[in-house]
Amino acid sequence: MAVYPGRGLHGEVVSALGLRIIRSDYPPGSVIDIDALEPEFGVSKTVIREALKVLGAKGLVDSRPKRGTFVRERDAWSLLDSDVMMWRREARREDDRLLADLAELRDAIEPAAARLASLRRTDADLEALESAFDAFAAAGRDVDQLAAADLEFHLLLLKATHNELYARLDMVVTHALEARNRIQHHPGAGWMDPVPDHQAVLDAVRAADPGAAEAAMRFALRDSDEDLRSGEPPFEVEHQV
User: Fold this and answer.
1) According to the CATH classification, is domain 98-230 in 1.10.150.530?
2) pTM (2 decimals)?
3) Cα–Cα distance for residue pair 48/120, rounded to 1 Å
4) The pLDDT of residue 238
5) Which residues does the UniProt record annotate as the domain HTH gntR-type (predicted)?
């Protein structure tokens, strides 16, 4: 899944329009008025059209002769696209199950990934996992270091499956962990020591024990799942669009 970099005016327009669509400011079927957007954003029609092409690639809009550019139904959206997930998190619609869905998807993905990793990991994979775990264990209450090392550990585990499709699910894990960290891992918050759970996963992968690896990961996910289902605090957005 390509992640749109979101740089410059072009990126600002993409993000603003994407968020509006997710929030239903532009409901499905509505036509996007390019002429009205040009003065609003202070950019040319070319920039607007290029931004809409990006949104079209994400399944959010479509263009037809004599109809113009219109918002597509939700079932056409690329829901695993990183930007779409970020806009859904930022929009915080009460009827959006994104975080609960991410928790359920992690339950399906990561224990099975740990099982495969225990069977397929190379020495290089194990060395990388051990390095990420050491950084994780050394982070203590440094929330930024803890979050970065935790994410690295989980992504390396997907990579160690040597299954290209598992590796492409990195955005699911990334957004789930980012949301969990905003809920739980912040200064002043209390949380259970996550090191023993991750140690158990690493030990099972090192021992090439698929049953233990799967069980350890399932156990490690329990608190993260509960946090995700509880929802995350609002984003602090500098410029509301």
Assistant:
1) no
2) 0.76
3) 47
4) 47
5) 7-74
